[in-house]
């Protein structure tokens, strides 16, 4: 609930008239008057943050929640990171040739994400395609832990099949049987089954451990 008396008290202490507060916030003077006198019971969700910024108050002060915001820890920005080259692409689709090219793209990963392992145990790939959408999207970068086997059926892995095609898929299998399935998340893409002698041309490169996605305006 809005602390009406506090709004009026702070405004007067700062020597700001209702007319001036109206100019600074873009909120009508008559509306501000109703806020201060408790005549308005419902408030637009964006009104109080604007007033708090103008009055230089912590967020939530006018709703009596400033103590909550004061308890939130200040975010820490790490300076301990490991830099990886983005060495190529992995298809969130099929029939994408695996090429370990490098065009100079690099990414810095906070050291805590490599869990005490050496840098040589990881590599970073860029996702291409939408078969793993929405979990993985075209252009995402993925930190992959190198390993030659899957930990369980249904785990997502980076797989080479046909000796040269790379893909990112859920890998399903059953111990003792001579097959595996590459399963997309996006239902618009098919599941591919690899079996018998084709398994000799299929291998696991690793499993994703961190997704890096850049949001662009």
How does the SSE layout of this entry go?
Blueprint (H helix, E strand, L loop, with lengths): L3 H10 L4 H8 L3 H8 L10 H8 L11 H6 L9 E11 L14 E5 L11 E7 L12 E6 L8 E7 L3 E9 L5 E5 L8 E4 L7 E10 L5
Parallel strand pairs: 1-3
Antiparallel strand pairs: 1-2, 3-4, 4-9, 5-6, 5-9, 6-7, 7-8
Characterization of this structure:
- The chain is an alpha+beta fold and 217 residues long.
- The protein is built from 5 helices and 9 strands; from the N terminus they run H-H-H-H-H-E-E-E-E-E-E-E-E-E.
- It has helices spanning 4-13, 18-25, 29-36, 47-54, 66-71; strands spanning 81-91, 106-110, 122-128, 141-146, 155-161, 165-173, 179-183, 192-195, 203-212.
- A 9-stranded mixed sheet has the order 2-1-3-4-9-5-6-7-8, with no helix packed on it.
- Strand 6 (165-173) and strand 7 form a beta hairpin.
- Mean pLDDT is 81; it is low at 66-70.
Determine the mean pLDDT: 81
Query: Multimeric state of these chains?
Result: single chain
Show unreliable segments. Answer: 66-70
Distance between the termini: 35 Å
**What is the approximate shape?**
elongated
Structural class category: alpha+beta
- Going across the biggest sheet, name each strand in turn: 2-1-3-4-9-5-6-7-8
Secondary structure: number of strands: 9
The profile of the biggest β sheet is: 9 strands, mixed
Beta-strand proportion = 25-35%
* Residues in helices, as a percent range: 10-25%
Question: Which terms summarize this structure?
Answer:
217 residues, nine-stranded mixed sheet
Task: Please give a quick description of this structure.
This protein is of the alpha+beta class and 217 residues long. The chain contains five helices and nine strands.
